[in-house]
Amino acid sequence: MLEGRSLVEPGNFSLEEMEGLFNLAQRIEEDKGFLRQSCRGKVLATLFFEPSTRTRLSFEAAMLRLGGSCLGFAEPGSSSAAKGESLADTVRTVACYADLIVMRNPKEGAALLASRCADIPVINAGDGGHHHPTQTLTDLLTIKRLRGKGEEKLRDTLQGLTVGFCGDLKFGRTVHSLAKALARYGNLTMIFISPGELRLPEYITRLLEQQGIAYREIGSFEEAMPVLDVLYMTRVQRERFFNEEDYIRLKDTYVLSPDKLEKAKDDLIILHPLPRVNEIAVEVDADPRAAYFRQAKYGMYIRMALISSVLGVNHA
């Protein structure tokens, strides 16, 4: 049971609990009337100390579709944080008004702190370069829905797959969360494509080695493309750089274009947590392998499943 529980990182939920969320999200997708109005009278608070489009709006859309209400702020300047209020005090105060908090904060560990301060569940919508667990649930659901066969579990879908990550692997919290989550399933290969300056942090590679996950770190698109089953593109994040010159030098290192896909598998899935800047050419959008906008829609369904579960809705 997920009722009353916080989600700070994907590891907070067991694989069985995540599988239950995936199945629930699929049921919500297929039956448009299922769970509508099930959260009537409940209030979701969205506390976003960093900009967001998809994550914030998909959470709000999810809650509204469940019949609940939303309140909150989309930037810290519109909250008492601008006056110097501590995060702990903000969270304790908002917990007086809401049944569930969804929070994004630029500081690693902020979501964990919030979960310890609030007496209601807290869902981490991104804490610096650390975790983004609901994006990870979205990514896993997308792979399951697009690669899975019938009623098979995600573990079976992932067996033997090769998943490539490309772009900003150093600061990309979506990459860190997804790589750690995939490592829990085992028997798959990961390929990390990035310039040397944006390589995956050592704590992630060390985890993969401990879990016995096969992985490679390379600098070439062309080397990886023919063997990939899933390609996870990411943008080079300007907001994570301390030096503007480094950002400008690295931002166009990898651009996925139709010619680079000529050697890719016909059933490749191209994912991106969005927003994109120029790392995927718009011409790729017409390719049936491009799944990033479908991925965004799956994000709403998995958040509907998560919200209803954490709030204790009866799914019978």
Overview in brief:
With 316 residues, this protein is of the alpha/beta class.
Which structural category fits the helices and strands? alpha/beta
CATH architecture of the largest domain: 3-Layer(aba) Sandwich
Give helix and strand order, one letter per element, not per position: HEHEHEHEHHEHEHEHEHEH
Spans of at least 5 consecutive residues whose pLDDT stays below 50 are: 238-242
Please name the fourth-level CATH homologous superfamily of the largest domain: Aspartate/ornithine carbamoyltransferase
Any idea what the radius of gyration is?
19 Å
Mean pLDDT: 91
What is the strand arrangement across the widest sheet? 7-6-5-8-9
* Overall geometric form: globular
The CATH class of the largest domain is identified as Alpha Beta
Whole-number count of domains? 2
Question: Total strand count, please?
Answer: 9
Biggest sheet descriptor: 5 strands, parallel
According to CATH, the fold-level topology of the largest domain is Rossmann fold
| Termini Cα gap | 14 Å
Q: What descriptive keywords fit this protein?
A:
316 residues; alpha/beta; Rossmann fold; 2 domains; five-stranded parallel sheet; four-stranded parallel sheet; 11 helices; 36% helix
